[in-house]
Amino acid sequence: MFENEIFYFSVVLVSLLLILFLLFSYLVITKLIENDRRTKVEKYKVEYQLPLFQYFNDEGDEKALGFDSRLQMKALIELTAGFAKVLGGDRIHERIRLFAETRFESYILSRLTHRRWSMRMNALYWIEEFDMKNMFIHLDRLYASKRLTKSEEVQLLKIYIVNEDAGILEKMMNPKHPLTEFDYSLLFKSFNGGQLDRFIRMFGELPIEIRYALIESVGLRSRQADSMFLESLLDDQSAEIRIRALKAIVEMEYFLAPSKLTKHLLSSSWQERLMAIKACEYIRNPELIQYLQDLMGDSSFYVRSQAAQSLLRLETGKDVLREIAASEEDTFARDMAEQWLERGSV
Question: How far apart are CA 109 and CA 120, in angstroms?
Fold first, then answer.
C-alpha cells in the first residue's frame, strides 16, 4: 500500500515537473520569437528611415517604401508615427495623413477590430497620430459597440475633439462610462479656443466633474479674455467652485482688485483663505497687509505659512513680520514670522 502511494506521488510529481518544463519552454520560445521580430522591425526601420523622411519632405520616391511583410509595415507605421511627432508644417502633416490612409488602412482596421484591448488601443493611437479621416466610420462603430472600454472611450473622445465633432458636447456630458475629473482635464487639453468658449457659455448646465476640469483648463491656458468668467465664479454659492476659481486666477497670475479678494480672505473655509492669500502675491497692495497680518494667527498652519510668505513679498512686509515676531501675543503667529524671517526673501 505504501509503495503504491509513493508510485502515484512520483507520477504526479513528474507530471507537474513536465508541465512546468513545457510552460517554461513555451515562454522562452515565445520570448525568442518576439525578440527576433523586434530585431527585424528595428532593422527595417533603419532601412526605411531616410527614404521615408525624404518622401515626407517631397524629396524622395514612394517606390522605395514598398513592403512585403507585416513586420515591414509595422516598421513603417512606427517610423511614420515618430515623424508625425517631430516634423512640423501643415504640408508635411497632410502627406503623412495621406500616406497612412493609403498604406495602413487595412492593417490598422484589423487592429481596431481585434479582440485584444491592447491592439485596439494601439490602433486608436495611430489613428490620432496620423489624423486618419477615412477611419471615422469605423471609429463610430467602435464607439457604439457594447465592448467599448473606458480607455477606448477617452481616446475616441480625444479624436472627436481634435476633429471638432458636432456631437462632442453630448458625448462628454453623457459618456458611456463614468468619467472622472482627471479624464475631463485630459480631454480639455485637446480643445481649441472655440470649443472651450462653448463649454464656458454652458457652464451652469455642465456636470460638476466637467465644471471642475473646465476651471482648471481655463487657468492653465491663461487667456486674459477668460478673467471675467473666473471673477464671476468668485460669487458662486459653492465653496469648492470659489476655491478652484481662485486657484485658476493664481495660475493666470491675474491682478484681482483687493475689494474682490477681501471676503475670501475672511472665508470660513481654510482652503478658500489659502487660495485668496496666494492671489495676494500677484496684487501686492498695501490694503491687504492688515488682512495678511490677521491671518498670521489663523488656525491652519498652511494659511499662516502662506500669509507670512505673501507678507514677505510686500515692500514693507519684512517690517510687519519683525513686528509680529517681536511683540505678537499669538505664539503660532510669532513662530511663523520668525521662521520666514530666517528664510529670507522669496
Answer: 9
